[in-house]
Write a structure and sequence with these properties.
single chain, 218 residues, mainly alpha, Ferritin, two-stranded antiparallel sheet, 9 helices, 3% strand, Ferritin-like, DUF305_CopM-like, signal
Amino acid sequence: MTAVERPLVLATAVALALGLSACTASGSGAPEPTSPTVQLGAPGEPNRTLSPDEAAAVEGPEHTDDDVAFMQMMVVHHDQAITMTGWVDDRTQDRDIRLLAERMRLSQEAEIEFIAGWLQDRGAPLRGDHADHAGGAMPGMLAEDQLERLEASSGEEFERLFLEYMIQHHAGALEMVADLWSAGGGQEVEIGRFARDVEGDQGIEITRMQAMLAEHSS
């Protein structure tokens, strides 16, 4: 089985976690306290605290098919990055790369868990048709030969390839976010926040990896 064709190893764990959390309820049965909803006033006008009935009547933008496709593709995209980070400890002793890879692994596992919950809440499957074409359909995804080369390398060669390939991978994620905005997606509050977080976090990591790659090349 190739690296690209590996199943999403986190999907089962995420599904179980979601199932367990769904079965856990507050012992008191009392409703959770909620914060007041404040409606921002127009320029020059004061804000207004809405009553519970008014707050319930306020509906935000709905999610779209583009939003669902983006989230499903991001699961596959993140899964490949997690595969890459899983090779780091056995192939390099570089402390900075090991720390970077561990932060990436933890953050992207957490994001997959968030995406799984987001999709479940909207009645959408974790994987869509595009998941079967991961190598060529998503920006930044490593091809089979790149994955094989990375997995077979070690030491300085691995460090250079890891940084180069992860920069490529992150740049692809930024392109996916840009495509989402261009399609008019990301207007729903939760997915909009998630997409902006991906944009910000991975942009920062690209800058960091470019500096690390320059150090390795000097």
